[in-house]
Specification:
By secondary structure, the protein is an alpha/beta fold. It is 27% helix and 26% strand. The protein is globular.
Length: 137
């Protein structure tokens, strides 16, 4: 996957019923939950993100990224496994955030996350943060 390759469909898991712009975030699920922290929309990701769990993550990412001017932080500190399906969801949501005048960054200090993003050529697209700004680390 190249940094700008978002597959053919722009937001494949999106449908009008999932448009959360201006409303509450999607319900938490075993892989993702969304919360507000000051000026940030934080999507906390847990467990193993692969083809089977991608849609549950994408639901949260797409909703957060669809807010005009959103500053989205994707917290990957509790992720055990993250494959190209997760990267695809991140890329699509990041594009959506930019389309709505926002941005998306990744929270993780794990070397495996840095290696994954570097290997995919995505480190420049997803700046890594060591933690959520304003929270105790």
């Amino acid at each position: 996957m190249t940094p700008d390759a978002d597959d053919r469909a722009r937001y494949p898991t999106e449908d009008p019923a999932m448009d959360r712009t201006g409303s509450t975030p999607p319900a938490a699920n075993p892989y993702a939950r969304t919360r507000r922290r000051g000026p940030f929309t934080v999507v906390e990701v847990t467990g193993e993100i692969d083809l089977a769990s991608e849609a549950l993550l994408a639901e949260h990412l797409n909703a957060a990224a669809g807010e005009p001017g959103a500053d989205v932080l994707v917290d990957l500190r509790r992720v055990a496994f993250f494959d190209c399906s997760g990267l695809r969801a991140l890329c699509r949501a990041e594009r959506r955030a930019r389309d709505h005048g926002g941005r998306m960054r990744v929270v993780s200090e794990a070397p495996r996350t840095r290696r994954l993003l570097h290997g995919a050529g995505l480190l420049g697209r997803f700046p890594l943060l060591p933690g959520i700004p304003g929270e105790d680390m």
